[in-house]
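Supplementary Note 3. Input sequence used for the single-chain structure prediction.
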Amino acid sequence: MTSPWVRRAIVTGIAGLLLLSASWIWTVLAATGHRHDVADAPATDVVLVLGTAVAPDGQPENRLAGRLATAAELVKTGRARVILVSGDGGGDSGNEPAAMTSYLTGTLGVDPTQVVADPSGLDTYDSCIRARDVYGVRKVLVVTQAYHLSRAVALCRKLGIDTEGVTARCDGCGATLLAVKSAREYFASMKAAWDAIDRPAPRITSPPSPAVTNALTLVP
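The predicted structure, written as discrete structure tokens, is reproduced below.
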């Protein structure tokens, strides 16, 4: 006969799994119909690029470089006019928005007037809410890899931003990395669902900035 504590552990485990699954399913359903490749992305003024690790030499690592290359393609094909790069300006791996800006304007040849940097997008939720409240973004293309895209789209849309997601290139993303990242997304979805309900303030608050609006006035 199974002891009471074993039964409780099993019930608790099942309940936790169902809660995680429900959160993950919410992100997938919320993003359904709002995921695109570059070729079929709708034209929008602003593209939001979410930050991730920077290499020790200050250059974007493969995944971040893929996001930036995708954003640059959106701008160069006329599907977006301004790129808002959002990440951690003081993270352990380095200044993500500074590296992103340098790579866009240097390596990828994007006009500097078309790039705005948010150094306080400490996670996906903060990047979305700061895009809305600090930079006044109400409609956006959000760019990240496929494993992260549903959560990003779901969060931005839940915050009232008219959001379409664009799948970024993932050069060098092997099967092991993708499996690890997909598993991480499964667990991260629970925090995303909670943030969508609780609507906390971003960890770093800033006054409204006209940077995106000003950049748009400079672009035909």
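DSSP finds seven helices and six strands in the chain. The chain has a mean pLDDT of 91.
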